[in-house]
Amino acid sequence: MTTRGSRISLAVWSGLVLAFLWIPLVVIALYAFNASNIQGWPITHWSFRWFRVAWDSDARGALELSLKVGAVATGSALVLGTMAAAAVARFRFFGRESISFLLVLPLALPGIITGMALNSALFTVWGLAPSMWTIVIGHATFCVVLVYNNVVARLRRTSASLIEASQDLGADGWQTFRFVVWPVLSTALVAGGLLAFALSFDEVIVTTFTAGAQATLPIWILDNIRQGQQLPVINVVAFFVVAVTVIPVALAQRVMRDSGIIRRGAAKVTEAVEAAEIPAV
Amino acid sequence: MRRIRRRQAATAVVAAAIVAAFAVPAAAVKAAGSGLPTKIGKGEGSLNVIEWPYYTYKSFAKPFEQQTGCIIHRKDAGSSNEMFTLMHANGGGGGGQYDLVSASGDASLRLIYARDVQPVNIKLIPSWKNFLPAFKSPPHNTVKGVHYGVSVQWGPNTLIYNTKKVKPAPKNWSLIYSKKYKGKITVPNNPIQIADAALYLMQTKKSLGIKDPYELTQAQLTAATQLLIKQKPLLKRYWNYATDEITSFKNGDVWLGAGWPYQTLQLEAAKQPMKEIVPLPTTGWADTWMLAAKAPHPNCAYKWMRYVTTPKVEAMQALVFGETPVNPLACPIMNKMQKGSCVAYHLNEPASYYNKIKFWKTPVATCGWKPGNGCMDYNAWQQAWTKITG
Amino acid sequence: MAADAGALEAGPPIRRARLRLSGFLWRHPWLKALGLLSPPLAAFLILYIGSLAVLLISSFWTANAFTAAIEHTWTLANYRLIFSTAQPYLHIAGLTLEMAAAVTLTDAILAFPLAFFMARLAGRRTTAMLFVMVLLPLWSSYLVRIYAWQTILAHDGAINWALNGLGLPDQNLAYTNTAMWIVFSYVWLPFMVLPVYAALERIPDSYIEASEDLGARGSRTFRSVILPLALPGLVAGSIFTFALTLGDYITPLLVGGTSSTLIGNVVYENVASNTPLAAAFATIPLLIMGVYLLIARRLGAFEAL
Q: What ipTM score was computed for the predicted complex, to two decimals?
């Protein structure tokens, strides 16, 4: 289908795009070793001192908070998103179509609007005090849709009769979930969860509206950009995070690959399953 | 008998009315004076502040925490607007969450009139009597003799220029309005910048009758806006953060612009060929630590206000942040920590110097220099600024 | 039925109870749907949609200029201000829309060939590596990446340094709308690659084979089979790029020039001191995204998110 020429040009284009994606990251890594306080070019003096400064600064606390918020928000999004997806994929009811529309709004609307809305809802209407939990609520609102969409897509591709078959064989709800539903959903959850965590980890606009005196990593970085006596530490922190994230992302990708989500022809497997569907009585 | 009873009833009613009439203003008076603490009690163990970044920096805040046991929790704000929102939210007065806010002059009056801050007993802050006279009871934090906070630091708006590219060296602000360095100029992205234009017009176009650059009539505001719109094609950009301006100067994108001593000192420390002048009269900013109306830890708050205005801490904060103390006793300490810093930050100037700096003040509808409400308020300024930058 | 009854009675009491519950829920699917849907939906509806509604209503009120208190006097003044031609707001909205469209188009052009290569041409190992390489930049903090671009595009920055090395003249890229366009396209690119990749990867080989069996050549197969099936992925990615550009205010602050104010900036400047005006202006991106989402749903993008 594809000629050799088009394969080569596609490969070249892909290489260029990836270079475009990664050159700024290389620049960031270089600046992590820049001795000067000011980000100028080219770099004349090199130093490790910003690593020490970053270690002593509030970056660790901010990183910890970001990880905690990300974990809780992703966890809630996984639970809530799966529940909503299960209801929508399996049942027909009034307003079913609008649910996907409503759930995508926090992600699709500009962050500043979501931030304003959540700020007035959480603090003015409900009178909550800003805390880690208000940040989590804000993040969960736009993370839910990422899990929801993945799970809905996966459920649409699997047959409902799998569950019927399991129950015909005597399994109760919990066993059906453990042996039938979970294996089918797991990779969809990993994919959705990964993207949700990434989004929550890097989110700054909604977070500024829902946080009190708590600083997540992006807020800490913004503070350093505003008042930059320690500006180069943001490069150190970004470099560190990317370096550390290679492993979990590669692992997650492997999980998805082994279960067929990143394999061409995954659709073939689903087709076969659907073809073998037990006709409903 | 009936007449006596009626008279007694009438007296009772009148007495009640008089008591009621006094109760209301009494409450107001209480807020204004009689409710002030006479001494600082025991620390509550915690202090929540809304601050400009680094205003409670560890190097000088840690000893405070160890001495008083008041552990500081910070919320960093990026703009005066943000500070105001945080203080005004959740029912106002800091929402019962925040104790102190380091408000600049363009936010402090708004906080006072919105009743988000409470008066402060200046007698509990011994360093106050040593302050430069200009900062003891400035109009942006003292209303009708009542202090709503204590001044902490300030800075002038300066003209920074690249000595290699801008020749001859500028002597006043006119260079940022002229075509000579078109495309190489920068000014701050802040509606209060309109006051700088108004100050310029105050000297160059006296027919407009501008008396106070923060109190402008519609016609005066329009004139200032027009000047800034004419300036826009001369600019490379509007800078938002101090670090931004530093990067722009270093990377050769701008040669000339309005800034603060902090930027100049950072550039000089990096061996860049930048210098600044303070062409008087100029605008400036001054920060006040204000006490939230519903502060949950007032004793810790007073302890901090007392601590941060002492000469040593003033010197440390000045050099960390890049601003000027209000306590001139900090001068020798500053020179010991960084040679020549007292002069570089303009701390040891005579009183006449400070009188020529027009410190930030929230624009309000009431004009101070003429009767009535003919002046433009902050919303009008914000809209004018959007017109300029849009 | 008798066999079922027998099955229900077997086993320890807990298991019997669970079976009975499963059976009950099976016979009353409405309850199950309600049980599954209520917590997330209720929390979501109350919190988010309600506060959006309140925001919309507040756009018809005014704010006291001094205390920023919202005064509940009904007025159209905010909308009159925004839609007035003497004011800059419509121009700002137009610029933002243009920028969002340009960024979306750019990202689609950049992402599609890469996604196609990853989904259909690369081997398993290569695809895995490319996938990680596309996803990792999302972890390096959007703020730090924008700040890096500020240095790259600067007058004495990396680009001019490279150009000078090649003997080419300096480019005046920093702090312009072009700079914003480059940076926006850069930061949102992974969000376009992933959905397009997922959509392309889902196309079964059998479709391609069938198309070839029917006599279509490469380009025809591409146009008639691959592109329509990839379209939901493209639209899904465009939701991200469009929406994120429409609401951003940080990129204009860091890399924008003198006429780079976007919708997000105006809302951000007014959100504290003049919330009704900010809310009124925020209805513009709200409406735009509402329409965009409806079209996207029609094109099947929601399944491809």
A: 0.82
